[in-house]
Amino acid sequence: RKEVEQDPGPFNVPEGATVAFNCTYSNSASQSFFWYRQDCRKEPKLLMSVYSSGNEDGRFTAQLNRASQYISLLIRDSKLSDSATYLCVVITMEYGNKLVFGAGTILRVKS
Amino acid sequence: NAGVTQTPKFRILKIGQSMTLQCAQDMNHNYMYWYRQDPGMGLKLIYYSVGAGITDKGEVPNGYNVSRSTTEDFPLRLELAAPSQTSVYFCASSKTSYEQYFGPGTRLTVT
Q: pLDDT at position B8, please?
């Protein structure tokens, strides 16, 4: 079983739509969680951290469910510029607090 | 700040050749990392360093070597290139072990 699993998509949505991505992780000792965004042929960049209480940044909302080992990202009012691959990232103590990356979910927002 | 820089951007190697991928950061970060990203896969950690003079293996270190003689530089060496090393290589750095800043990547093809 992969440490971090994501639905690869692609999710094809119209502008203005609300879209949700899910991610599951296998290591119950994982301690920190993030969503990174990666544009085509570019480097990953941090989008937001994920906290147990949930957190919101503008149109983006991230949730963590430790009991189910599940992370989600909700994007409201999708923009064309949101088209990218969204990477679910988990930190464990192994390998110097390494980041474990999911393979990513592709989002395509169309006009 | 230039952030994290990587050279070269692209490279084609023949099987058995050697090369060094360069990575430098100007943010005075202690932590530095090398990842590879294969199509449809998450980023895999090759090597990491928690400070000058300290390096350790990640998840997929075979066929690679690193050194960290200064805080700024973290070169990755491929000794005997193999087709399985065809990938996109990302270097990253972080102040703590959490948010990582990535370089633009090196696209390597081994034929």
A: 97
